[in-house]
Amino acid sequence: MGAEKKPSAINKLKAMYPLRANVDESYQKSQEAIAAGEPAVWSMVNWWQGGPVMKAFGLEVMHPENYAAICAADGVAQKYLQESDAAGFPSHLCGYARTNYGYTHRLMREMGGQVPEEAPLGGMPPPILLVASNILCDARFKWFQGLGRYLDAPVFTLEMPTPGVKEFFHEGVYESCVKIATESTREFIRFVEKLLGKKIDMDRLAEIVDDMIEMNRVWYEVNELRKAIPSPMHSRHFWSCMPTSLYLLGDCKEAIGQYQDLRDELSAAIANNAGAVREEKYRMGFAELPPWHSLKFFDALAERGWNFVVESWAYHPPIPIDLSHVSDPVEKIARYTLQFQTGYYQFAKDADSDLGYMGYPYVRWAKEFKVDGMFMHPLVTCRSSSTHLGYVRETLERDLGVPSVWLEGDTVDFTLFDPEDALRKAEAFEDSMEHYREEREKAGFDW
Amino acid sequence: MANRGLARAREIMGARQERVDALQKEGKKIIGYMALHVPLEIIDAVGMVPYRLLGDIREPVTEADRGLPAAFCPYMRSMLDLTLKGKLDFLDGLALAHYCDAQEKTVRIMTSMVDFPFSHFIDVPTTVHDYSLDFFTTQVEDFKKTLEQYAGTTVSDDRLRQAIDVRNEQRALVRELYDRKKSTPPALSGRETLEVILSIQSLPAEEGNALLREVLDEVEDRDQQGAEGKVRVLVWGSIIDDPAYLEVIESSGADVVIDDLDGGTRPYTTDVETTGDLVRQLSKKYLVGTSTPRTVVDAGEGPPKKDNIRDLAARFKHVKRFIDDWNVDGVLLQSVRYCDPHGYELVDVMDYMRHLEVPAIYVEHNYSEGAFAPLRTRVEAFIETLE
Fold it and tell me: How large is the C-alpha radius of gyration of chain B?
């Protein structure tokens, strides 16, 4: 008689399953289409700049960043990391990139373009196009340049500006940002039209863009509901639900319904005072990218009453923006992705912070979500998601009396993350959170 | 100021702060900048002095952990460390630009954690399309306007053209300096070259040009008769802002005859045209005319296929020219650890060197004096393969 499986301390959300299933279904659908002769495209996450265009063209898009996370969760990433090192790529590069380099090396040099048997979800076949993006980090355009030794697919790099916070509000700067983002997206359309030998259907693009904006609006509302005490949704579920939005998986209209179902379920949970963990003792934030290979670690923390109520800024939808006055779908895309990049700039400027994206949003969130502690997960191989953490830690403690626990790790390389050690540190961190809770009360904060 | 030429350059490098103090006593405002996309001519034109910010490989990093993780560009960590220790407090302002992701985020942290009298951030596009240049031009215009407000002045076209002419002269003088290294043996060492370049980046442009002219006169008269050349090396990669690094290479048996470095040739390979819209011309030079791994330049090929060798040849044509014109025997690729633009570029450069059949090695270091011993070992072994 086997041991009885212990139920997770994180409550399940029914509406999460269809959203999570979109990942597998999307890969399966892409595999079938590619097997039937449709071309594959590899794309960086581009925060809805290039995604709707590719969707309008009907392209089968695979995301090496997401696929690296899948390889990590599946346990095969380690093999690809070693292949990357052996091929001469520096070991300090992005873990996702190294996984992809190792995978592509094996795909092209060892398998002659046939997907290796160990590749999860049917693998990623050789692409006809590589779509890079300059948003958030250098890796996401340099990485695809480096694939030139294996692939003859052309690379297109999408431009999205990263203006300074106070400079963003200078006369003419916002419109110049919109202009470059619009022109880059138009150039991308021309590029793909030339590649495929067919014109884009602009009506179809407009429909997708509107659906995408509506989908993210609902998804934003879902996350706003997590401010409730107790919070009805845990970060683990967020990470399961977010790929549909971030990677624009499946049909956008269906996705709107799926996120609406999730919103309804959370609303009902709030009405019933039902939290995501059995007893919410500590409301936690998580910055930035999770250890995909060790997500069960969060179950152990949930047993202790840790409820992760907000996380991973780069995976969140932008603060909703009214773009109904913009008729051109390409310009609408530009303004929308720019809103992702700069949506927190005004708040940051008001707080005299120059970290308008990635950094400052956590400070704002800590207050809005009434966070007791921040779990900092600096990544050895991802500078972009780690650079701001020290600043956030210092600002949270100084300005809001919110302490942070600092645990190094990696998104794909499980040898760089020690869950047992992390758990020990987390337990000790509870004393800090109790202390700072008292300090916040003395200082007049309302949590 | 008894010293002249190379001795003067070494003196400045040894005490950069002294010259800055003197300039500030004269009423000059000092604007700190980092490589390579800040249009220095605008700072010159408002009557201020651009001052290249350097890290310090000899200073233990003790404060930067407050703002940056350990696994991060050590040059940027050094920069933040110096900032938090108050060692940049003398600056009258900062002119910052989006060179790489690490620098872009570090400067945001710097200016969030420390108040400077003035700071301005210039975003730099990733590509060199026309629309990228349009955008960069608006960024440069915004910088000009903001700095003019801070300086309480307006820069006329004539004034800007004068500033451009002086900087163009400086770039020409630096190219001439490198030309003197084509001989066997080169007329000046890599260490001396770097000392001169880092010195002029600490001085008003005219003063820098005077120093360059002194150095050119000095090396013209150098007696190289009978001297033997050593293995001729090109050094490529991320920042080297301490001449001792090149001295280690040269004392290991190589002549550093040319480089592709931010602290070396990169700012000086192209000039600013002085016709038409000057701000646009400046933008063109500092975006399109400044070749580094952080900017995507391709062979101009559209779909459907990419020819990798053509792409590499387009991206590294300047490296090939250096190899040919400076008669290079081998290439030393070096980078600080955790430098993403150079880390990704490395494999492509290495592939291109293989294609050209030029010997190359890669050395990664942690931006400290501790890097010197392993560097010497690697360089000595490399030189043995070339002799």
Answer: 20
**Can you tell me the distance from the alpha carbon of B133 to that of B112, in angstroms, rounded to the nearest whole number?**
28
Q: Coil, strand or helix: which one is A138?
A: coil
A78-129 residue pLDDT tens: 999 999 999 999 999 999 999 999 999 999 999 999 999 999 999 999 999 9
Coil, strand or helix: which one is B68? coil
Identify the CA nearest to A361 among candidates A380, A382, A340, A377: A340
pTM (two decimals): 0.96
Taking contacts as CB-CB distances below 8 angstroms, the residues of chain A near B142 are 167, 170, 172-173
Percent of chain B with pLDDT over 70: 99
Torsion angle, alpha carbons of B352, B355, B356, B361, to 10: 60
Q: Which residue of B73, B146, B296 is in closest CB contact with A157?
A: B296
Which residue of B68, B101, B347 is in closest CB contact with A384? B101
B 109-168: CB under 8 A from A: 109, 111-113, 120-123, 125-127, 129, 131-132, 134-135, 138-139, 142, 145-146
- Whether residue A102 lies inside any domain: the answer is yes
In a domain, A54, yes or no: yes
Query: Does A6 reside within a domain?
Result: no
Strands (E), A92-192: 129-133, 155-158
Q: Strand A282-287 and strand A155-158: pairing?
A: unpaired
pLDDT (0 to 100) of residue B295: 95
Check residue A3 and give its pLDDT: 56
Question: Which pLDDT value is given to residue A5?
Answer: 67
Overall number of domains in chain A: 1
pLDDT of residue B368: 93
Pick B100's closest partner by Cβ from A138, A176, A359: A138
> Could you tell me if residue A97 is inside a domain?
yes
**DSSP per residue, A336-396:** HHHHHHHTTHHHHHHTT-S-TTTTHHHHHHHHHTT-SEEEE--BTTBSTTTTTHHHHHHHI
What is the ipTM metric for this complex?
0.95
pLDDT band for position A304 (50/70/90)?
Answer: very high
Higher pLDDT, residue B182 or A295: B182
> Is residue B72 packed enough to be buried (19+ CB in 10 Å), middle (13-18) or exposed (0-12)?
buried
> Domain span at residue A171?
16-442
Helix (H, G, I), strand (E, B) or coil at A48: coil
Residues in B 63-102 with any Cβ partner in A closer than 8 A = 65-69, 71-73, 96, 98, 100-102
User: For residue A432, what are the contacts with CB-CB under 8 A and spacing of at least 6?
Assistant: A373, A403, A405
A131, β-bridge pairs: A43, A156
d(CA B309, CA B354): 11
pLDDT tops 50 at residue A425: yes
Residues 6 or more apart whose CB falls under 8 angstroms from that of A110 comprise A116
SS3 of A158, please?
strand
Q: Which helix (H) or strand (E) holds B52?
A: strand B49-52
| Residue-wise pLDDT tens digits, B294-338 | 999 887 767 888 899 999 999 999 999 999 999 999 999 999 999
Structure confidence by residue, pLDDT tens digits, A259-300: 999 999 999 999 999 999 999 999 999 999 998 888 888 999
